[in-house]
Specification:
Helices cover about 80% and strands about 0% of the residues. With about 100 residues, it is mostly helical. The protein has helices at about 10-30, 30-75, 85-95. Helix 1 packs across helix 2. The longest helix is centred in the middle third of the chain and has 48 residues, at about 30-75.
Amino acid sequence: MIRWTEVPKARLAAMAAASAASTALYFYDYAFGFTFLLALSLIHILLEFPLDSLALRQLGAAIQGSARGWHAARTATAAPRARPASSTASKRAKQSR
């Protein structure tokens, strides 16, 4: 999914530098490093909410479309049912004989 082999070298170097800087923050002052990275992770989660809502809407639309297609296919292939004879009509037929 991530395809690490296709990541540009500059971006890979930036990620490695960010990871090293995060570790250096912990070594410098554990409380500050923890607080800073916690705030960064919370910002990351908040910024992902619009993407999550978009994904949920698309998933709902795909499920709804699939259910409509399944229902349409099922009703199109269903054989028409024969109507049962009513009890009064069969009684009249027996009486007239």
